[in-house]
Amino acid sequence: MNFKYCKRSLCSAWALSCALLAVPAQSAPRTPPDDAIVIEKLPFRATDNRARELASMRASAHKAPGDTAAAAALAQAYFDMAQARGDPRYIGYAEAVVSRFERNMSIDLLVMRGVLSQYRHDFDQALMDFAAALVQDPERADAHAWRGAIYLVQAQYDKARTECAALLKLQRPVLHGGCTGLTQAYMDDRFAAAKLRGDTTHRAEEARFQLRLRKNSALAVQLAAANYQVQKEPRDLRVLLESALAAGNADAAKPARDWLQSSGFEDARLRTLAAQTLQLPSASKNSGVTP
């Protein structure tokens, strides 16, 4: 498998990784002191091509015990087998392979250890491994994808969006599309649940979501205006101005402009946005503010 370009399972990392993140954590594997010790023999059919491939990969890794590429490929093969057969024993085998290189972790092994750590819900370790891999190779799309999946599960949506943006910058349309789509689905569910509870405290965040991800400026400005009626912090001001500007609705921005004018609040970015809304065709001539 080509780890850098993730041509197999990680090309659908968003559906895959979030499914795996829901798998219950398992206990740590037992590593035998000698490779010659047989822990268990799994039932394979004589015609099982994948089993023969695994046997060949094990042999290659055994002949070159210091070959990190062979070890990473074998660990990935075990992980793929765990997915295909729903057998967590293969996760243990993969972990045993990776653990032999604790002092000599290649980028591929760092990513693989991160994947295995998230499988066991050790998200902190997984994020550290993905971050370490990205330090060495910022273009590791699979590391960005897995980080994004973890951030979604942790409800850190801004960080998940950052990973989506990284995938777009890397020109990975499949991964970026999956990343963005899943982020939208997670946030849609969250906002829908909040509305059912009668919770209106997330309107500013929903407005940003509609503006930046959904590109629905009309709905964004409605949400931002409703939010500004009860919450008037600078971040609430900003999302109202940005939404009004995107929607071409100068009147919606008037409360923000009025507050900036009366308060004397000095924020260059906010005042620039306010001035820009004044350039919209529908802006009232008497609602200005000096940027």
Bin the strand percentage: under 5%
* Domain count: 2
Give a short account of the largest sheet.
none
Could you give the count of β-strands?
0
Overall pLDDT score: 82
CATH topology of the largest domain: Serine Threonine Protein Phosphatase 5, Tetratricopeptide repeat
Q: What's the CATH H-level superfamily name of the largest domain?
A: Tetratricopeptide repeat domain
Structural class: mainly alpha
Shape: elongated
Using the coordinates above, name the CATH class of the largest domain.
Mainly Alpha
Oligomer: single chain
Helix content: 55-70%
Can you name the CATH architecture of the largest domain? Answer: Alpha Horseshoe
Number of helices: 14
Question: How would you characterize this protein structure?
Answer:
With 291 residues, the chain is an all-alpha fold. The chain has 2 domains: 9-189, Tetratricopeptide repeat domain (Serine Threonine Protein Phosphatase 5, Tetratricopeptide repeat), CATH 1.25.40; 200-277. The chain contains 14 helices and no strands. The protein has helices at 13-21, 49-63, 68-85, 89-99, 107-119, 123-136, 141-153, 157-169, 173-196, 203-212, 217-228, 234-247, 254-263, 268-277. The radius of gyration is 25 Å and the shape is elongated. The N and C termini lie far apart (56 Å).
